[in-house]
Fold each of these.
Amino acid sequence: MASFGSSAAARDSSATAAISVIEAFHYFGVGHNLTLPLSILTIVVIGAVNWLDMARIVRGQTLSLKNTEFVEAARACGVDHRAIIRRHIVPNLLGVVMVYITLTIPQVILVESFLSFLGLGVQEPQTSLGSLVNGGVAQMEAAPWLLLIPAALLALILMAFNFLGDGLRDYFDARKSS
């Protein structure tokens, strides 16, 4: 059982509980009767679901960093909590956050493209790679390039972001070890 003796533990438990409650909304279909345009609703739903993972990663990394030697040394020197967060915690979180974002972007692009391919995402007159692939499937025999070009472009974009994320991870891991 968690101890609520300190205000930091209470805030942490409250934030974790709030994230879990918000995550439960998407499992139970709460909010499915909204009257927003489908493209805006798609963006909001994808963002609402994906920030939860980011919040958990940042929380875990922050809890890990707050017990490191340089934070303990700053605390022993009498540095203010806000200054510790600004000078020590946030700069060490940026690498993890940037890598996670570059590895999450392909996931979001793929989800949006899949929803648009099924007709549940971006609607006309806007376009999406998923809707272009869907249009290409209908014309596959007469004009195969209408399918191949958007599909190849989607694959290239996803691979580029994955390579960027891998490169950033290698860069920040090498920087930490040296």
Amino acid sequence: MKKALSILLALFLLFSMIPGAFAAEGAAPDSAANIIEVESDSAVVATEGPAGTVGTNELATLEAPAIDEAAEVETVDTAEVVADEFEVEDAPAIVGISAVLPEKEITVIINGEIILFDVAPQIVNDRILVPVRAIFEAMGAEVSWDGDTDTVTAVKGETVVVLTIGDFNPTVNGVAVEIDQCGIIVDSRALAPLRFVGEAFGGTVEWVEEDLTAIITFEVPVEKGRPIGIMSAMDSELALLLETADITETKTIGGMKFHIGTLEGKDVVMVRAGIGKSLAAACTAVLISEFDVSAVIFTGIAGGVGDKVKILDVVIATDMILHDYGMMTADGFVWGAYAGVDQETGAIPVDKELSDKAYTAALMVLGKKSVFRGTIVTGDQFIASDPYVTLLQEKFNALACEMEGASVARVAYEFETPVVVIRCMSDKADGLAHEVIENFGDKAADISASIVIELMKII
């Protein structure tokens, strides 16, 4: 019975043509077809394609857990593969192939931007292979394809990268670079090793194994001009940044000291605004009007509100809400949305591009398990109440609460200035908050500041 089922499933797969991930690993196969064994929870069939080219079928409808070990293909059938973008067809047979089905998708982030692919990155012979064109173009290169030689050429400034499918020696400005996994073609797209592709134009590559995430960063030429404003509420939240920056001048306006200098090669103005909404709003206005900052980064500590948000986790705001704005009636306080930009929800927007990059920077500092994105709420109260935390969760779906961010975002919105709010959790805003913040406040402040430092490298 099992044998009959295996044959039926294999025949079904031959006509399904659902792409998967394969890598060359042995001698050229025999010409006869040989279908691999079909297990109870997975099945894979490979077909011949151009050298370094893969065509596969997977039984996607089984929805079983990902296989732990690669299924080996003993021989390869013949099939014509045509690449609509690269015009690839009728090349020599690929050698023996292994397929690995990752438990989850591989994510690639370049300078804070999550890259979307029409062919997913693959794991081949324990190497991450990524679509070449998408990565190179995201790094600012012009990419061309020679279908006669199966060669990708990418040019950025004075750097020329040439990679031929199936070749283990691509070149950078004519100098061969040895790689231990050649480029392949999967579903009409050229894929090559992540580290080579990411570093070819001077980028750095960080692989976060637990998240299956690749973070590629590269320097973008800095245009001298408007500085970036960096704000905090307390001295402890700005301390690490002042230690790291090169400060050349300090100006005092309205009792606030504005430190002018550079951080990670970028012009900055850094300031401790003070605690509460009024001081935060005033400081934001001065940063924008007096120093003409191009963006505002607000950094510091907060109380964790979301159930999954733990002490020393980080929340990057997707929007801000003033939770204490409203009307006091004979029946008690009635919250109002009218202080927000969206006067139905009370939401105050933050800059998406800047926030995306802050999220990437946070991943580089903490890893995915400790970084969250969502609503942060602001009020002129230090929250240390379990019932009120529940209210903030239920009414606003908040992940964190603090005392300044929404005011900063509201003023920045009026001045049409990009803003991002980065908060590290010093406590859980519950009945123990006063005690816990004493133990974790400084550490949380440094984590948030460390994220700002990483952010400055990619903006």
